[in-house]
Every structure is written in structure tokens, then in C-alpha cells.
Amino acid sequence: MPVVLETRGLDKHFGGIIAANEVSLQIEKGARHALIGPNGAGKTTIVNLLTGVLKPTAGQILLDGQDITRLDPHERVRLGIARTFQINQLFADLTPIETLGLAVSERLGHGKDWWRVVGSRSEVTDEIVELIERFRLGDVMHERTAILPYGKQRLLEIALAIACKPRVLLLDEPAAGVPEDERHEILSSVEALPADVTVLLIEHDMDIIFSFADRISVLVNGSLFVEGDPDEVARDQRVKAVYLGEAFDG
Amino acid sequence: MALASDTRPLAAEVAAFLTRRARWSVPEIAFWALALASIWLFPAKHLILTEICIWAMFALSLDLILGYAGVISLGHAAFFGLGAYSAGLIGKYGFIPEPVLALVASGLIAAAVGFATSFLVLRGSDLTRLMVTFGVALVLGEIANKFSDITGGADGLQGVEIGPVFGKFRFDLFGHVGYVYALTVLFLMFVVARRVVRSPFGLSLQAIKGNSLRSSAVGIAVNWRLVAIYTLAAGYAGLAGAVLAQTQAFASLEMFSIERSADVLLILIIGGTGYLYGGLIGALIYRLAQDYLSDLSARYWQYWIGFVLIMMVLFGRVYGGILAGAIIAATIWFKLETGTAFALTGGTLLVLGVVREPIVKWIALREQQAVAAMRRMRARLRLGAVTGADDAGRA
């Protein structure tokens, strides 16, 4: 499979703190790639670097072999990289209908249209309906996002990323904080993604990772530590050591 | 038809929900009908009504950036003054004899300067923006002050001559033509603003206001959208200033002043941000209250504006406004002497500041009950309608 997203020697320093150290990651087209690691390993920093929220101190990011290191976040979205956030980043005053309508309109290039009313285009409303049905948001679609139950907000968070029709989707702990009995709804929506969408999943929950991922990278202290398929990583003694909190002197 | 009923109703519902605010509602039509009727109903009040229209345009302009994009400005008078001096100079030197064209030109000049300064304003946080906008207004005001041989300096721009509108309707002393002119310009500006805020562009502004990090994560070029709306708002403020200069055949340095910037912010806060009518209603209330209160006590009327503002902060715009209005009405009813009224109401403010919490909680509780009751009623109505439709569909 060809590599879709690649980083080469990615460094990110915050003052004296090294959040990402020489990270060279290759993500193949259609992969279900998981990025795991203990708290503070720099997983979210990697997502922020890939999406352009942060600019790397050194190194390169390539999408389909094209250098996107200098591009702004919105430009990367247009090239097909979308993400969800570990902590919900939603539009509190907008309803799910408006939120999804916004993303769909932007993707179809209507964002600069200052004259036609939102919702007067059927290609936009059709897609909103599809997303609302897929993510079961129908019962709350008229409500302000701020008052939605947390599980619904989490679904909207993912639906909003899907509305960007990404080729590469970065999921930053999609099930974080969701009660056990609501998790399957979120996970099944992630599993139902089309096979050609490449997914990079950041997660803590080992059950989720091992049921979902076909490739796993382990990040420790900002550096790539181990990479392999789930069986290899599960067997790896060093990974166990890290997760059991033992000091590793490598 | 029965086949399509799976998804079609939802699509129609989504489309209806998104376009619902684009349709003109009955209160809106009534509002504008009343505004139109005021031309014949209050011919003696046309001068103050013109002034209200101009404040409304100016507040509408501020609402576009503050209410929709979350960009705060303490120097919005920069563009108001610029529009006023543009229209004044165009009139004085007779560059464009026809006022409507001169008005458009003035708006474009203000928009151009708005575009150029937007890059200064859009960096940094709210406090930075507050200071930069204030600074831009000071800079422009002092430029007008310095080049007094062109602008008239502190004496204001004298000898402005405004031709007849469309070469036909000359501005008269009683302000009849001026009012129709100002009201028409306000209405046109409002219609355009109304379209803009309900467009995909307008929705993206609200998204940026709510969460600019997420906005860029769905592909919105945040800075360019802000530049665009700031430019439009500057043009709108310029139009407001130009209408003032044209209807008064005069422009002065006061039009750049911090007081004017603060007043328009006050008007928008009284009327409420983010629904466009706030600036219009605020302008009406503010200007009429100013007129009435300054009749009551020419020297101290601003006390009452301050009183209303504090009440609104304490109890919310609507309740605070009503409560303040009632208290002011009571002081007038009992014919209190100014000093006594100040002592009593000032004391009331201090006491209310202390006992605010229980009052606000009581109001919130009542509000919740009222909303819940309304929901229940609506749900009952909808249930009836839906089951009726379902039966029809199945049959």
C-alpha cells in the first residue's frame, strides 16, 4: 500500500521541553493506524503538528509525497486531512444542523458565498441528512450544541470531521469520557468508515486499540519507540515495561 | 410518495430549519411597516428620526463585527468620521454632485481604509484589538485636525454643499427629504446585512466567534473571513457617517471621537448583539431616552444612562432594562428633585448589587418553568399533528 501521510525527523520543542523528537512516521493508505503511549508522550502534539495547529521546530510532513509542513490548518483540511479533538471543540451556539451545514458548505467551496442562504442548496442539505442519520443525531439536531448530552457531543465531534470528507482522519481519543454503554455507538461509527479513508487513532483504551488497529506505533517521551502490527506490539516486553511504569533506560 | 417518506421529510426539515430565519417574519414586517409609516405619522420629528437612523446604521455596522464575528472595537468612529469627511469634502469641492453616488464613494473609501487597517486589528486578543481600534480612531482624528486647511480642523468642515438626490429632491430645513433618504439607506443596508449573516459566509463568522480553532479545522481561512467582515463593517460605518454629513451639510472632529465609539457600543449593548435588530432598537431607545432625560435635567442626564447600564449588567438586558425603566418612571412620577433621585437610585444600586444572587435565581427559575410549560404545550401540538400525518401516510 502506498504511504499517504509521512513525517520525516519531526521535532517540536517548547522552550526546553522536547515534545516530539525525530519522529518519522509512515501511514499507509487505508490503514487503521494507532498511536499509543503513556500520558505526556506527545501524542496530541503529533496530531497538532500533522494538522498544522503547531509548526515543527524541525522536520517535514508529507501528504502523498507533497511537502505540507508550511501549510496552515485550513489549507491542510482542503487537501484532505481532518481531525477530532480529545476535548470537544464544538460551536456551542450552533445546532448540529448548522454545525454540519457549515463544514459541508466549506468543503463544497461555498464558504465565501455571502448572498445565498445556508440550506438553500440541496447538495448541502442532503449531506447533512446523511450525517445526521449516520451518527444518530436526529433527536437533537435542533438543539444548541452547548446543551447536548456529552455522548451526542462526542458523536457530533466525529461527524464534523467526517463532514470534511477526509482522506486521512486523525482521531484524538474519540471515546474519551464517554460512559461504557455509549461507547459502542462511537466505535461502530468509526468502524463504519469507508475502507479507503486512512485513520490515525490516538487512544488509551487497549480493548479499542486491539480491536480496531492493524498497525500500532508506540510513542514514549516524544520519540517513536516501537512500531508493528498488534500482535508484535502486544508481545513486546519493552512496551509492557513502559505501560507498567517501569523505568526504561534505552 | 410513500416510498420517499423515509428520508425526504428529514431533508425538508433540515432545509426548513436552515432557511427559517431567512424568511421575513411578521414582527419584522411590522417593524419596517411602522418605520415607513413614521414618515407620515411624525412629520415634526423627522430631524431626530434621521439621527436615530444614522445611529442605527452605525450600530448595525458594529454588530456585524462584534455580534457575528466577535471582534470588539473601541474605535469604530474612525470609519464613521472618515465617511463623514469623505462625503463632506466631496460635497464641498463638488467632485460628485449627486448625493447617492457621493454616498457610495464615501462608503468605499471607509471600506478601503478598513481593509488596510484590518491587518493591524486582527492580530492579538480582545484587549489588543480594543487598543488598536482606539489608536486607529485617534490617528485618523488627528490627521483631520492637522490638515485644517482642507478639513477645517477644530472648526469643522464648513461650506458643504449637497446637491439634490437623483438631481430632484433637495435636502430641506425640516429634514423631510433627509429622513426618507436616511431611512431608505438604512433599510437597504439592513437587507444586505440580513442576507450576509444568513449566508454560508455569515455562518462561518459565527463559527469563528464560537471557536476559531475548530473553524480552521473544518477548512475555514479564519483571518481572511475576519478581514472581509471588518472591511464591510468599516464601509457600513462610513455610509452612516456620510449620511450624517450629507443631511447636516457639515462634518466635525467629534465624528471621530472616543465618545461616539463608546456611544455606539452602548447602543448595541442596550439593543443586544447578534440579531441585527439590536442596533436599530438600541438606537431608538438610546436617542429617545437621551432626548427625554436631557429635557428632564439637561446637565445630569447621563447619570440615567449609567444607571440603566448597571441594571442591565446586574439583571440581564430585558429584566434589567424594564426594572431600570420602572425606577426612572417612578422618580419622575413622584417628581423627585435630581439630588434626591440620585441618592435613592444610587443607594438602590448598591443594595441590588448585594442581593442580586437570590433575585437572579428567582428569575431564572421562573423562566425555566415558563419555557418548560411552553415546550410541553408545543410537544402536545406537534404530537397531534404527527400522528395525524402518520395515519394519513399509512392509509
Characterization of this structure:
The complex is a heterodimer of chains A (250) and B (395). By secondary structure, chain A is an alpha/beta fold. Chain A has one domain: Rossmann fold (3-Layer(aba) Sandwich). Chain A is 34% helix and 24% strand. Chain A has helices at residues 43-51, 73-79, 96-107, 122-134, 150-162, 180-191, 206-212, 230-235, 237-243, and strands spanning 3-14, 17-23, 26-28, 32-36, 58-63, 66-67, 81-83, 168-172, 198-202, 215-220, 223-228. In chain A, the strands form two sheets. In chain A, strands 7-8-9-4-10-11 form a six-stranded mixed beta sheet, sandwiched between helices. In chain A, strands 1, 2, 3, 5 and 6 form a five-stranded antiparallel beta sheet that branches. In chain A, strand 5 and strand 6 form a beta hairpin. The model of chain A has no long low-confidence stretch (mean pLDDT 91). With 395 residues, chain B is mainly α. Chain B has 16 helices and no strands. Chain B has helices at 8-19, 26-41, 46-68, 77-93, 99-121, 126-146, 148-151, 176-197, 200-210, 212-217, 222-248, 258-271, 277-296, 301-315, 317-333, 338-394. Chain B is globular and about 65 Å long. The two termini of chain B are 12 Å apart.
- Proportion of residues in extended strands of chain A: 15-25%
Determine the strand fraction of chain B and express it as a percent band: under 5%
Give the % helix of chain A: 25-40%
N to C succession of SSEs of chain A: EEEEHEEHEHHHEHEHEEHH
Radius of gyration of chain A (Å): 19 Å
Tell me the domain tally of chain B.
2
Low-pLDDT sequence parts of chain A? none
Strand tally of chain A is 11
- Per DSSP, the total helix count of chain B is 16
Please state the overall shape of chain B, judged from the principal axes of the Cα atoms. Answer: globular
* SSE series of chain B: HHHHHHHHHHHHHHHH
Distance between the termini of chain A: 32 Å
Number of domains of chain A: 1
Helix and strand content put the structural class of chain B at mainly alpha
Task: Report the CATH C-level class of chain A.
Answer: Alpha Beta
CATH fold-level name of chain A: Rossmann fold
